Amino acid sequence: MTPDQVKLVQESFAKVAPISEQAAVIFYDRLFEVAPAVKAMFPADMSEQRRKLMATLAVVVNGLSNLPSILPAASALAKRHVDYGARPEHYPVVGGALLWTLETGLGDAWTPDVAAAWTAAYGTLSGYMISEAYGGAQAAE
């Protein structure tokens, strides 16, 4: 990621943060719409899960300018996700739901440059997480 992309991700997330509860609802509604099978991996009461999602996103977004500072937490999170039943093929689906949520929430502020920055950020982190959780061979699939 370039410094400009990091800045775009951070600035656009700052616009979503005030509506984080609504954004989390939109994200999970979209995820369960496009991948209904993953719903079984989540609790019936999603309120805590939605809070955790937005808190984690905030940490990641704030840490993008110093990526090594967030990699240990990303590694631990990836390994926990294995225990929940997450597979490498779930990562692109989650990424799609995240980008869709951001596009929906940001409206006109979702520009091609912002989309490219978020795509780069998600690609960087999801690739790392897949590698950490499943090994390098799985990350390429």
Keywords:
disordered C terminus; mainly alpha; about 140 residues; about 75% helix
Tell me the layout of helices and strands.
Layout lengths: L2 H14 L3 H15 L12 H17 L3 H18 L5 H17 L5 H23 L1 H4 L2
Helix pairs in contact: 1-6, 2-3, 2-5, 4-6, 5-6
Short summary of the structure?
The protein has 141 residues and is an all-alpha fold. The chain contains 7 helices and no strands. It has helices at residues 3-16, 20-34, 47-63, 67-84, 90-106, 112-134, 136-139.
Structure, described:
- With 141 residues, the chain is mainly α.
- It has a single domain (3-139), classed as Globins (Globin-like).
- It is 77% helix and 0% strand.
- The chain has seven helices and no strands.
- It has helices at 3-16, 20-34, 47-63, 67-84, 90-106, 112-134, 136-139.
- Helix 4 crosses helix 6.
- It is globular.
- Mean pLDDT is 92; it is low at 137-141.
